[in-house]
Amino acid sequence: MGLDRTLSVAPMMDCTDRHDRYLLRLISRRTLLYTEMITANALVHGDPRRLLAYDPFEQPVALQVGGSEPERMAASARMAADAGYAEVNVNVGCPSERVQSGAFGACLMAEPETVSACVSAMKSAVSIPVTVKTRIGIDDRDSYGFLADFTGAVVEAGADALIVHARKAWLKGLSPKQNREIPPLDYERVYRLKRDWPDLPVIINGGIRSLDEAAAHLRRVDGVMLGRAAYDAPYLLAAADDRFWNAPGGAPTRREVVESYLPYVRARLAEGVPLHHMTRHMSGLFLGCRGARSWRRTLAEGAARKGGAEVVLHALACVEEKPPHRDPAMPVRARAG
Q: Strands, E, within 124-167: which ranges?
């Protein structure tokens, strides 16, 4: 049975680290999770054991790698497989100038032969799935033909799935945050891609803020990848297992999620991990509940004072959980960065 990509949470820099993934896994046992992007150079020349560390509880979890040299990408894929990751994903979507200076990310859409060579080398190196995350275009190269040519190249190289952020990327003039908001969404282009490659698993990403929206997309594509919505309001995943996998047992309450996260927090504190590294991911957990502002403030102030796990308990006493009135996606607050 292949990896289930029905619903996933996107790789997000400074967001989807191991602490965030553990928290999300407490909320949904079935949603596929992704790491932050790690560069192939960092894995080859750095400390892969530290960079690839995760808790087995996070599974299923996929590793996203950034790079453009086939040999190093293949080596990174082998490291991912050896570490037990369920998938390795190639970043062809990030538009930041720092990533461009490393000759990878969204700028690689202009070099499908390079991406194809990387995918082919990675496929030869590992048995786990190798996937590609991309945009629908870059700068003025945003025709459907441009996207189709790119898709054809990575499919021929053996890519197991294509994750498509349904916006093009401007490589100059827009920040990464602006690139997530200003270029218009074009979901129809992703649907067309699926029609033209019916055997290719196509996962849609970009601007999807609720499980209702995800369900609507799933009528047209194979999977949905949530981004900032799942980070800013993580409890929106609470209904996912029942809705998309008919999983028994029901969703945990927010309070139960916090209580289950506390042993993890204590264990990491004992290892010297600062409290803020964990509590910052919990900020939006009670979004829409009474006392949510006090919850956020207590977490932030307690972490700044370098408090311990008791900070989380004090914050929990500030908030009153109430059942959501509808799909637990709720309005997502704006977030800088």
A: 130-135, 161-165
Q: CATH number of the domain that 134 lies in?
A: 3.20.20.70
Q: What pLDDT score does 326 carry? A: 43
The verdict on whether omega for the bond into residue 60 sits within 30 degrees of 0, i.e. cis, is yes
Domain presence at residue 326: no
Q: Does 285 reside within a domain?
A: yes
Are 170 and 193 found together in one domain?
A: yes
Give the active site residue among 15, 94, 118, 289: 94
55 found inside a domain: yes
DSSP per position, 280-295 = GGGTTTTTTSBTHHHH
For the question of residue 15 being annotated catalytic, the response is no
In the structure, what pLDDT confidence band is assigned to residue 7 with cuts at 50, 70 and 90? very high
- Select from 230, 229, 213, 231 the least CA-distant residue to 221: 213
One-letter amino acid of 228 = R
| 257-276 confidence digits (pLDDT tens) | 999 999 999 999 999 999 99
Q: Which domain holds residue 31?
A: 7-245
Position 317 pLDDT exceeds 60: yes
| Residue 185: closest CA among 218, 219, 208, 153 | 208
**Backbone φ and ψ of 13, nearest 5°:** -60, 140
- The rounded mean pLDDT for the chain is 93
Could you tell me if 127 and 265 lie in one domain?
no
Orientation angle between helical segments 254-270 and 18-27, nearest 10 degrees: 150
pLDDT at 147 over 80: yes
96 CB neighbour count, 10 Å cutoff: 18
Residue pair 286/232 in contact (Cβ under 8 Å)? The answer is no
Ranges of H-type helices in 226-288: 228-232, 240-245, 254-270, 276-279
Convert the pLDDT of each residue in 152-204 to its tens digit: 999 999 999 999 999 999 888 788 888 888 889 999 999 999 999 999 999 99
Query: Domain count of the chain?
Result: 2
**Residue 323 falls inside a structural domain:** no
